[in-house]
Specification:
By secondary structure, this protein is α+β, with helices and mostly antiparallel strands. It has one domain: Chalcone isomerase. It is built from 6 helices and 11 strands. The strands form 3 sheets. A 7-stranded antiparallel β-sheet has the order 3-4-5-6-9-10-11. It has a two-stranded antiparallel sheet with strand order 1-2. Helix 3 packs antiparallel against helix 4 and helix 3 crosses helix 5.
Length: 190
Amino acid sequence: MKHVLLATIAALAFNLAAAVEVAGVKFDDKTRVGTGELVVNGAGVRKKAIFKVYAMALYLPAKTGDAAAALTARGAKRISIVLLRDLSAKQFVDALQEGMASNHSDAEMGALKDRLQQFSDAMLATGEAKSGSSVLIDWLPESGTRLTVNGQAKGKDIAGEDFYRALLAIWLGNKPVQDDLKQELLGKSP
């Protein structure tokens, strides 16, 4: 019985460690965003063709394996991205805009247009992002969506939780940018 218990603990410890390290990138199992304490919900790698583009982790107030629950979770949230290859800010912005448009109607995109432009402009101002660059997209209930690149806040916080949900839908929506990445962010094996 003691051996079974130790094996179970070891397996759980291994699974927890594996859930916060992907493609050699380590993500903290907990983080603080604003006044909220968050836990890593899942982590995975965005691939394009044969290339690994970035590693990312999703942080929520409480773990969930349900995309709808993740999208509507109350409180602070974080998307943490570490680039695995050099990208121009334009490539990153184009991919975000495409992912957002795939998960929203024209009317919904119309309502998000100005805020998406504000977010895109803040990202474009960063220029090129080198491999190893860190991008944080935080939801702070008291102020909005905050973009931070390599530890520096970019642009102004963007109001409206609907905008943050629209960003999250890129990875968790009905037409996610990558199905297996969606599963990994939800803490499931693809």
